[in-house]
Amino acid sequence: MKFQFSFLLVFLSSTVLAQLTTVKVNHTNNNPNEPSVAINPFSTKTIVAAANINNFYFSRNRGTTWIETTATSEFGVYGDPVLHYSDSQLFFTHLSKTKGKGYGDWFDRIVVQEIKNFNPWQETSYSVGYNNNKMQDKPWLSSDDFSKKFKGNKYVTWTEFDVYDSKDPKDRSRIRFSKKGVNDKSFTDAITISDITGDCQDGDSTLEGATTAVGKNGEIYVVWAGLNKIWFDKSLDGGKTWGTDQILADQAMGWDMDMPNIHRANGMPFIGCYTESNRIYITWADEKNGDADIWLLYSLDGGRTWSDRFKLNTDDSEGNQYFPNLTIDQKTGDVYVAYYDQRHSSKQFFYDIYLSKINATQPQKINNYRITEQSIPLPGSRFFYGDYLDLDIAGNQIAIAYPKYTLLNISEIEMAYGNLIDLTLNPERIDPFTSNIAFEKDSLSLVVNAQNKARIDVKIRYGSFFNGARQRYKSTLEPKENLSDFVISSYGKTNKIKYRLRIIDLNTGNIHKIRKQFSF
Q1: Integer CA distances (angstroms), 390 to 79, 207, 323, in order
Q2: Which among 120, 133, 146, 477 has the fewest CB atoms less than 10 Å away?
């Protein structure tokens, strides 16, 4: 494909710390992950969130406090949550848990719920895409809230597997689509919109991650990953017919990313449309440059021609960036992409949440904002941590939801929220020190992340909290450009570790204390 636009120079800004407020969303410690978030566009004080498996949270005061409840449906609720406001009506899309079926078999449809009340839970459920017991996975929901011809339509895309995880080449995966008109009582029978198929092994050769955006005149734009490519298609008649799939970019090493110290990671694409000018944006992650980076491209003409790809993470480190997600400020046209970022972790034991802002009129002008004040430990390959984060903008409000690991075999959902004008410099809020227990196959290590020069004193007990071995470690840590993670000590097949860490920041004189007790 020939591309109409090119970039001779990308102007990179320095990283700043966003002055957003962060808060723990969940109250129940049931290891929530894969969060979704939506702000009510007609009442931005209301923010809702959902997470695996059937967790639902809502705030009536712009995210300051949260109420937790359990989502239910006649078709069951089992993860992959997607929240979406169509005007003032909230919709909730997720996987099914069909009664009378075992794990795996119960994912036989996509469920869309029209939420009427949070507490008590009141909703109407729609069964979407059932097809002779085939597995239906990874849904996405969008709506047409502005075009004259299709206003009120709801659109769902997802992946269908003939037989999940099958190695039989006859079993295939494909991208499916269904819609519901404003006066329709149910969603339409599903149709296949991908021109080719992938395998069923839930990897790079599987068609996955279909997301949609709606254009100014009711166009439906869809993007997905598979076979080491980023694919695009569109419909101009409300989803009745679709065009020929376009390959927009090669996805180096595929969407299924093998990242260190995490159970699994991906670079699946997300799409958005600025409806005033009908400009389409697509983001994804891949390893084109040897490590994982976040990419963006856009189209000014409804997807006929596209810009060259350009990198959003404005760092020169070898740290990986993945799990991107995208939203657009429909007031200004500015684009916001949130993602995991390991630029501050030289050995990839930690990550931060970063946000890239792409200027509507100068896409080459990119600002990077560090959202997390302290780097978050990665949980290792033994702990399921989910597949994505989420963000939303409504009015002048932004909310970013992401998982946070606590080193106690527990994950939480953290929310960063605030006004868009809060994306300003405040370096004093950064906590430059954190620790992690890094798991290998037959061992574990105590790792400290230091982003300032520090003097540390560590007391460690392992094997048994009462009679186990003890260690004492004192040292000065001098972080450099490619050194921020320091392995303090490593252990064999122990199942308990307890440590007390005292850190003196030699830049500021501040004293940091960390105490952790860990069993596995």
Answers
A1: 14, 21, 9
A2: 120
